[in-house]
Amino acid sequence: MQLVLASNNRGKLAELQAMFAPLGVQLIAQGQLGVGEAEEPFHTFVENALAKARFAAAHTGLPALADDAGLCVQAFGGQPGVQTAYYATQFGYDKGDANNVRALLEQMQGLDDRRAAMVSTLVAVRSPADPEPLIAVGRVAGEIARAPRGSGGFGFDPVMVLPELGKTFAELPADEKNARSHRGRAAQLMLALMRERWL
Fold first, then answer.
1. What's the predicted TM-score (pTM) here?
2. 21 pLDDT exceeds 90?
3. Which of 55, 65, 147, 186 stands 20 to 30 A from 45 (CA)?
């Protein structure tokens, strides 16, 4: 089965392709099909993921999978949330993973409450008008490190510490990260939903 991935993020594509391989699903990034980015005007992961999935399905004629994910920091009332990818820009930095990490560590300087969660919401639709989208949410609670550690992953992986391991996501081998991550958890749930309802 071919699914269009409503993203052009290479890291996300690689992670999800590995996770969906057991189902025989081939993910194709929407950019490869000439599809641009959808508007993401909403304040929740599920609404934005649904908008992205419907947009990709409408522009390709294929079933679509979208992921809206982000970092929710306890001390910031759950922010940056859906604005995670653009976090650094509100502090005068260019958009990008390294700048996001830098801005976060600057904003958390002196804070003792370092609790945070990585959240991934996957939405799959068979068509733009699918009345029953599949929705899977993965969440991993942890803490924000005081400095980046590790060289793997992307996004906030170098500062997201898993307390039970004492390591950041960026310090884990890719297969272990995928098994434990918010996206990995959401993908496992999505695979089960697809097996049950689509295959």
1. 0.90
2. no
3. 147
